[in-house]
Design a protein that fits this description.
The chain has 166 residues and is of the alpha+beta class. Helices cover 21% and strands 39% of the residues. The longest helix is centred in the last third of the chain and has 12 residues, at 106-117.
């Protein structure tokens, strides 16, 4: 039997690092993964996938990633259930991460954070193109247009920040 999950996407928030009573580190986070197609309105949708990572890997993941980080995830799908305070049964499906990869350099990540923090609108000019081309991450403005010949055919694309999945 096979239970493997491989994801490539961006973190929707900073990983939440906690420790169990026995001292084991556990981090939980959500990865936004763009779908390959657009909906009837021509908009690209994303899936938001819950993930959990354990022990030293959890500490490393929490230390080296943050909201918006482009990551590769390898793990397995797990389901569990519990009874909440109201007495209702709650079912949870999540990816238990075995391995992860950082898919952008520290410099690219820091540049993206600076651009987002300053409200620089061109940093997210072509979200789909950048998610498909990790090598174009960190390029902004006209540099992005030159580096990715498929990004809007030289035309500026206006994307409202409320349209972004993270």
């Amino acid at each position: 039997m096979i239970n493997r999950v491989v994801l490539c996407g961006r973190l929707t928030r900073d990983p939440e690092l906690r420790y169990t009573q026995s001292g084991a580190a556990v981090a939980s986070f959500t990865v936004a993964v763009n779908r390959q197609f657009t909906n009837a309105q021509g908009e690209r949708e994303a899936d938001f996938i819950q993930c959990v990572i354990w022990r030293k890997s959890a500490e490393n993941f929490a230390n080296f990633t943050h909201k918006g980080s482009l990551v590769g995830i390898d793990g397995r799908l797990q389901t569990r259930n519990y009874e909440n305070k109201e007495g209702n049964r709650v079912y949870v499906t999540e990816v238990v991460v075995d391995n992860f990869s950082l898919l952008e350099s520290r410099a690219e990540s820091e540049q993206r954070q600076r651009d987002e923090g300053s409200g620089y609108s061109n940093s997210n000019q072509d979200n789909y193109s950048q998610s498909k081309h990790p090598a174009s991450q960190g390029n902004t403005g006209t540099q992005n247009k030159q580096a990715d010949p498929f990004a809007g055919n030289g035309q500026q694309i206006d994307i409202d920040e409320s349209d972004l999945p993270f």
